[in-house]
Specification:
By secondary structure, this protein is of the alpha+beta class. It folds into three domains: about 1-125, no CATH class; about 160-270; about 300-560, Neuraminidase (6 Propeller). The protein has helices at about 1-5, 20-25, 50-55, 65-70, 75-80, 105-110, 120-125, 130-230, 235-260, 270-280, and strands at about 35, 40-45, 60-65, 95, 100, 115-120, 310-315, 330-335, 340-345, 350-355, 360-365, 370-375, 380-385, 385-395, 395-405, 410-415, 420-425, 425-430, 435-445, 455, 460-465, 470-475, 480-485, 495-500, 505-510, 515, 525-530, 535-540, 545-550, 555-560. Strands 7-30-29-28 form a four-stranded antiparallel β-sheet, with no helix packed on it. It has a four-stranded antiparallel β-sheet with strand order 8-9-10-11, with no helix packed on it. A four-stranded antiparallel β-sheet has the order 12-13-14-15, with no helix packed on it. The longest helix is centred in the N-terminal third of the chain and has 99 residues, at about 130-230.
Amino acid sequence: MACSFESSIQRGCDLIHDFSCSPCEDNGFNTEAHHHCTQCKKYYCKNCISKHNDLYQKHAVLGRKYVKKWETTLGVMDVLERCGMHPREALKLVCGDHDQLCCSVCVAIDHRQCSKIQHILDVAKGIQINIEFQQIPMKIAELQNQFELMKEARLKNTTSLKKTRASISDEIKTIRKKINEILDNIEKTTLQDLDGMIAELEINLKKDIETCDKMTIELQNIIAAFQTKAKSSDSKSYIAYRKSKDMISQSNHLLRDISAIECYNVTFQANNLIKELLSSIKTFGANEEQTVMTKQRKDPLSDPNHVFSVAEYKEYNVRMSDDKHQCAIRGVCEMPSGEFIIVDWNNCKVKLLDKEYRVLDHCDVPGDPWDVCHIDGNEVAVCVGSELYFINATKGKLVTTRKLSFSHRCFASAHHGGQLYISSGIALYVYTMSGKKVKRLYKDKSGDRMVEKCVISNDGKTIYITNYDEHQLITLDNDGNKLTLLTDPEIKFPTGVHVTPAGHVFVCCSDTVLQVDKDGKKKLAILAREEHVYRSQALFFGSSISSLIVGGSKDILLVIKLI
């Protein structure tokens, strides 16, 4: 059987063309076609096309420039019967090993070793009475109907999105109007204060002017009287002398009082907090994409009630050749690119890891780094002593850009809604991005590490903090009110805490990693024990990899694949 399909590609030469000249092929030659006649539905080489054109001068001939159109000129059944890989060849064979339709060229090239090559004529016997064959038109019609329904649903969805856009736009304009009203009232109050101050100063100036006018007249009168009395008797001259001296003394006293204030002036000290707050806010609100999924396609990552289990544990060594000490990983965060930033407390380093957890770059910090959090884009913030260092990770390099200093320890940090949440160990503060304190949110001075790490839920309404000294997970609202306090035998010396956008909460303790419910009321699952973690200090859940990244007091980064 091999001879029957090998001969079709070995006539004339061993070259295989995408389109061969039809007349040459009929005469046993394998010549590449350069022309196609849409009426004859045949292919012609450079020699044969001239004979064709002499006979059929009105036929439409397409050159190689229009080779993409050659196949589209064939009839429906012609296209159906032609090989997709070799359009000049008809489908005549079936490879049972690969369950694939083949032309003779396909068999010669890709199926030489296959043992189950059959002719379609043999396989196709009785196909028309096959029930599955008879159902093909119905199944295709059903699929066409489903695509039409899907198209209709998508068109309706497009219309609804436009309406949603208009509705949200109106809501934004309403917010803007209210903000304008607030700013107008602030401006009105500020100008009223200014007008009141200016009016009071103008009254003082008016009094000084009236005093000057009055004293000028009195001095004119006294000098005229003095000059008259000075030429009369001694007693009258003496009286004029004494009254003139009193007037001079009074005048000097008034002048001293008036000249004590050289000039009345008003200055304006702008309230920069307004500008800072507005500058830190990028949008009027968050536009969240809400995708309605079928139950069969529901992603556990989007279900806040999903309880995870472990698929596998993997370990990655993150120690560098110039590290002087064993690593102590106190903070982990993920970049939008899929790379990771870790802080190594023992070696005073911030390390950039690629997606395979290999160290790409590092930068030294002037002290022990306690934590790291992602800010925006390529920027992270690292806690060092009482300072917060801002570092950019761009093109595999780490560059420190600026720092903020605080009057307390900078033990841990989080970023949400354009504001910084800073833990001092005994309190949780809220700051603007420029370092201006907004408020103290929570405080507990009964120990040194009562406020260890903190994270904020995606909607900004819930804050989770770990209490290392009292072995607790504390849940607060965004006003700092305590909602719940979770204690459990498995929660011993809790350090790191992380919340996913969907609301899954993870906590790492000295020798365990746990999942707790989004209300912070109960333990849901134990994801790692001491055989996998050692004095764990930090963790982060990478949604793109469905894995927890856990760091602790050794050179190993533990990656826990969750399902």
